[in-house]
Amino acid sequence: MDGSSDEAKLAAKARAKKRAQARAGFLRETVRWHWISAAICLVGIILFAVTGITLNHARQIEAKPVTANREATAPAAVIAALQTAEKARGPLPDAARAWLLKELKIEAPKAAAIEWSDGEAYVALPRPGGDGWVTIDTQTGAAEAELTSRGWISYLNDLHKGRNTGPVWAWFLDIFAAGCIVFCVTGLILLWMHAHARKTTWWYVGLGLFIPLVLALHFIP
To answer: Which residues contact residue 133 at a Cβ distance below 8 angstroms, ignoring those fewer than 6 apart?
Structure first.
């Protein structure tokens, strides 16, 4: 009887040790992913928190638009490329894009929206924190551009919203959001694993759910 009892105790201790090791390993991995996601998302979280405040008070923060007008005349080679694109109702040719960048310091994306009318190309140039357009006469090559900037706050607000930022920034926003989810989920796991030592843990978690829920139900029209 004593021998079997000792064996049972040893087996129970072995199982308990195995569970403790598994828990410790899981805790280490959770902490690892928590701090890695925190480090990667730190600057982005601060940026999005700050721009959340500026967006919430957009009416109180006045933007002072600054408009710049530019003019130039395209060379014959660019005019020929524009006339070919006009007939095909195609995108802005590379020659025209390169000339705009060199002469007018305007970077027109390949996917820039272009409207063709008789003898004229109109290119919309929306961008974060500003707007713009350029028109080019396909017969004479006369180009006129207007660029408007609404300042750094507007620029950062548009980054927050993903407005006119292009596909690369859109991918960044998705990946950043995934990183924030990892950060929050691993944080929740750590709260759960340490909640027994901090009795108010779930009260605070509940407040984080209860307060916005009440505000949404009672104060949003």
So the answer is: 122, 123, 124, 125, 145, 146
